[in-house]
C-alpha cells in the first residue's frame, strides 16, 4: 500500500504487487475503488510489477475540485514516476479511453492494453452523448446520486430488473457515493464518438480486446463493444485486435492475464 501526490496536491492511493515491467491498471466507470481490478492485479503480478490505484474521487484517493481531465493525467504521471519513469497502461471500459488520452497527452507510456472501450461508432453518437451528459450533470447538480447512477446503468444497457436489483443491494450506497465520478469518466469519452484522427497519432503498440460473449446485463447493446473495438483497431497504426473467448464486459482475470502478459512483455 502507498500513495503518490499528484500535481495539484491530491493524494492518490495505490497497491503495488509483483516484480517485472511496470503496468498501471486504470479502472472504468462505476467502479467504487481499486478492488474491481484486484483479481487481475494478482494474476499479472506473477510476471509484472502492478500498480492498482484508486482513481481520484474513489476509494482512498482524494478528490480536489474543480475536476479536470488533465488532473487524471497528472495522477497517472505521478504513478509512472513512482514506477521508475515509464510504464505500461491497461484500461477497462472508459478507463481504456482515459489510458489512450493519457498517451495522447504525452505521458511516458510504453504499451497500452484496452478492453471494451465504449466509444459510440454509430450514427448520432454526439447527440446521444450530449443528452446523457446534460442529464447526468442535472442529476448530480440536484444531488440525486442514485438517479445519476441509474442513468449510467441505463446507458450501459441495464434492464428494469437489473436496476431494481442494484438499488436493493447492499452495494447501492457505495454506488451512490462515487456517482459524481461518472462525470469524470464521461469527460474521458470526449463527445462519445471515436476520435479516429487523434488516435492515429498514437505510436505505441496497443492491444484492443473484447470479450467473446454478450454480457446478459448488457444485451440491449448488441455488437456495440465489438464495433467500437474494430474501429479503434483500424484507427491506431500499431494494434493487436483480440477477442477473449467466453468473457463479458467484466472479464475473468484468469482469462485476461494470458492475453495481456505476452503483449506487455514483448520486446
UniProtKB/TrEMBL annotation:
Gene3D superfamilies: alpha/beta hydrolase
A Pfam entry, by short name: Abhydrolase_6
GO MF term list: hydrolase activity
Annotated ranges, domain AB hydrolase-1: 23-257
Alphabetically ordered keywords of this record: Hydrolase
Annotated protein name in UniProt: Alpha/beta hydrolase
